[in-house]
Design a protein that fits this description.
478 residues; alpha/beta; four-stranded parallel sheet; 13 helices; 18% strand; binds flavin-adenine dinucleotide
Length: 478
C-alpha cells in the first residue's frame, strides 16, 4: 500500500482524523476538532477545487450573487451560523440588532412587495395576505401532529390539500376569483417546496413535520457574501488541512490497515480516493451530501453500513432547490421592491402537475428577489481599469423548489437536476454550460444547481424569443 495519499505528505504518529467533504459541515467539524486536547492530525478530503460546497458567493451582475445558500434563517443567539457570522464581523448593524433577532416569523417566508399574475396583471396584496394567512395557518397546524398518536393522512401535501378543499367549499366569490385564489395558494405551495427542498409536499411526511425548530430572528443575508463565513473558517485552520480535488471513492472501515511510513501502527479505516490515493485514519467523519450517499451507497462503504443506517439514507428524501438569475439594464420594479411573487394563473395545488413538469417546469418558480447592487465605489474598486463610474446593473434571483430542467429554455443547455436515486445523474465530466446563442439578447440566465458533488453552474445566453414565459413576464412588465 502507498504510504499515504498520493503527493500528500504522510503525517507523523498520533491520532489521525479525516473529514470527507469540505462544505460548511466538514469545515465546522474540523474547526472544532482543531481545539480538541488530543490535537489530532486533521485533514479534509474535498472532491472539488474549492471549499464551501453549497455555500458559494460570486461577484456578478454588479453585486454579490449567492449561487447557493442565501439567508441565515432565524438569525439569533441560538443559531451557530449567526454566532460565527457575528464573531467574524460579517453582518451589518441591522442584522445584529436585538430588534431583528427578536422577530418571530414562525418560519414563514415574508410577504411579497408585489404580486404579478402570469398574464402580467397585478394581484391585490389584500388577496395575497388573506391566502398567506390561510396557508401559514395550515402549515402551523401541520406541525402540531408531531406528538399525535396518528395522522389523518401520510403527507403534508395531502393534509394541506384536504384543508384547502374544505376552505374552498366556503368561498363565496365568482369562479374567476376562486381560480385566482387557488393559483395564489399554488404559489405558496411552491415556496414551501423550496423551503422543504422537495418537488412535491406529497413527499414530506406529516408526522415529523413539526420536528423542524424555528428560531427567532428575521432572515438576513451576508452583505459581502455567505462565502465570507467559510473563507474565515478556512483561514482559521492549520496549513495543509485541506486536500482539494480528492473525490473519495470508498471508505474501508472496521478493518486493520497499515502503511509503510508508520511501521507497526494499524488503522481501523482506509479512505480510498478516485485517483487511487489512500489515506489511513483512526476516525473518519463523513459530511458528503445525502444525495451523494443515496446514489453511491452500494460502493461508498466497505463493508456496507449497518442496515438501519442504510435504510435511513434510503428513506430520507433529498430534493433540489434551484436558482436562476436574470439581469436587466434598467429595473422594471419600484425602488423599494424586494420580493416579486409570481402567480401562475390556471394552476391549482389540487391538481397533480408532475407529469407535465418537463414542459411547465417554470411554473415551479416562486418569484424574484431583487439583488442589491454594489455602490459606485465598490464598482470602481472592483474594476479600476474602467476609469469611470460603472452604473450598477440590476438583477433578480428566482428560486424554485423541485426538479427544474433547462431544456425548455435553450435546446443546447442541459441543466443538471437531481432526481430520485433511481434516476441517472448527470455525468460530472459534462460541462453544465451552453455556447452563446447567436443573436443572444441582453438577459443572462445564470443557472445554479445543487447537484452533488459540489455545485456546478453555467451561463445561458438566450435570445428574446427563446425566453421562457417567466422571463418574458419580467421583460413585458418593464
Ligand atoms: C440553491 C441553494 C440555496 C440554498 N439556500 C439556503 C439558504 O438560504 N439558507 C440556508 O441555511 N441554507 C440554504 N441552502 C442549503 C445549504 O447551502 C446547505 O444546507 C449547506 O451548505 C450544506 O452544507 P454541507 O457541508 O452539509 O454540504 P455541502 O455544502 O454540499 O458540502 C459537501 C461537500 O462534500 C463534497 N463532496 C461530495 N462528494 C464527495 C466525495 N465523494 N469526496 C469528497 N468530497 C465530496 C462536495 O464537493 C462539497 O464540497 C441552499 C442550498 C442550495 C443548493
Amino acid at each position: 500500500m502507498e504510504p499515504s495519499g498520493g503527493s500528500v505528505e504522510a503525517p507523523g504518529r498520533g491520532l489521525r482524523v479525516l473529514v470527507v467533504g469540505g462544505g460548511i459541515a466538514g469545515l465546522g467539524a474540523v474547526q472544532r476538532l482543531c481545539r480538541h486536547p488530543a490535537s489530532p492530525h486533521l485533514r479534509v478530503l474535498e472532491a472539488t477545487a474549492r471549499a464551501g460546497g453549497r455555500i458559494r458567493s460570486e461577484r456578478s451582475f454588479g453585486g454579490v450573487v449567492e449561487v447557493g445558500a442565501h439567508w441565515i434563517h432565524g438569525p439569533s443567539q441560538g443559531n451557530p451560523v449567526f454566532q460565527l457570522a457575528a464573531k467574524y464581523g460579517l453582518l451589518g448593524e441591522k442584522e445584529l440588532s436585538e430588534e431583528n433577532q427578536l422577530v418571530e416569523t414562525g418560519g414563514h417566508v415574508g410577504l411579497p412587495s408585489v404580486s404579478f399574475a402570469s398574464s402580467g396583471r397585478t394581484v391585490s396584496l389584500e388577496l395575497v395576505v388573506e391566502l398567506a394567512t390561510l396557508f401559514h395557518g395550515l402549515i402551523d397546524r401541520a406541525r402540531e401532529f408531531l406528538h399525535a398518536a396518528e395522522t389523518p393522512v401520510p403527507s403534508v401535501g395531502e393534509y394541506l390539500k384536504q384543508e384547502v378543499s374544505r376552505h374552498m367549499a366556503r368561498w363565496a366569490e365568482d369562479e374567476e376569483t376562486k381560480k385566482l385564489k387557488l393559483a395564489v395558494l399554488n404559489s405558496f405551495f411552491n415556496v414551501e417546496c423550496c423551503v422543504s427542498g422537495t418537488h412535491s409536499m406529497d413527499l414530506v411526511a406529516l408526522a415529523p413535520f413539526g420536528e423542524y425548530t424555528v428560531l427567532p430572528g428575521l432572515d438576513c443575508t451576508f452583505p459581502g457574501g455567505y462565502q465570507g463565513l467559510t473563507n474565515h473558517i478556512m483561514a482559521s485552520l492549520p496549513r495543509d488541512t485541506m486536500v482539494f480535488n480528492k473525490p473519495v471513492k470508498t471508505i474501508h472501515w472496521s478493518g486493520s490497515f497499515q502503511e509503510a511510513a508508520s511501521p507497526g501502527e494499524t488503522f481501523p479505516v482506509l479512505v480510498e480516493c478516485e485517483d487511487g490515493a489512500r489515506f489511513p485514519a483512526h476516525h473518519v467523519l463523513v459530511t458528503v451530501p445525502l444525495g451523494f450517499l443515496k446514489e453511491h451507497l452500494d460502493t461508498f462503504f466497505e463493508p456496507p453500513l449497518p442496515a438501519e443506517k442504510a435504510e435511513a439514507i434510503r428513506k430520507i428524501g433529498f430534493g433540489t432547490s434551484n436558482k436562476i438569475f436574470l439581469e436587466f439594464e434598467e429595473p422594471f420594479w419600484e425602488p423599494d421592491c424586494q420580493h416579486i411573487q409570481v402567480v401562475w394563473e390556471d394552476t391549482s395545488p389540487l391538481e397533480d402537475t408532475a407529469p407535465e413538469l418537463p414542459a411547465t417546469w417554470f411554473k415551479k418558480l416562486i418569484g424574484f428577489f431583487v439583488l442589491p447592487s454594489f455602490g459606485s465605489r465598490s464598482c470602481l474598486q472592483e474594476k479600476p481599469h474602467i476609469g469611470r463610474f460603472t452604473p450598477p446593473r440590476t438583477a433578480l434571483c428566482c428560486l424554485a423548489g423541485g426538479r427544474l430542467t433547462g431544456s425548455s429554455l435553450c435546446g443546447t443547455h442541459r441543466c443538471n437536476h437531481l432526481g430520485p436515486s433511481s434516476e441517472p445523474s448527470p455525468s460530472s465530466s459534462e460541462p453544465n454550460s451552453a455556447p452563446p446563442v447567436p443573436g443572444g439578447g441582453r438577459t443572462t440566465l445564470f443557472l445554479t444547481d445543487s447537484v452533488q458533488p459540489g455545485l456546478r453552474c453555467g451561463d445561458v445566453h438566450v435570445s428574446r424569443d427563446q425566453l421562457s414565459p417567466v422571463s418574458r413576464l419580467s421583460l413585458e412588465s418593464g
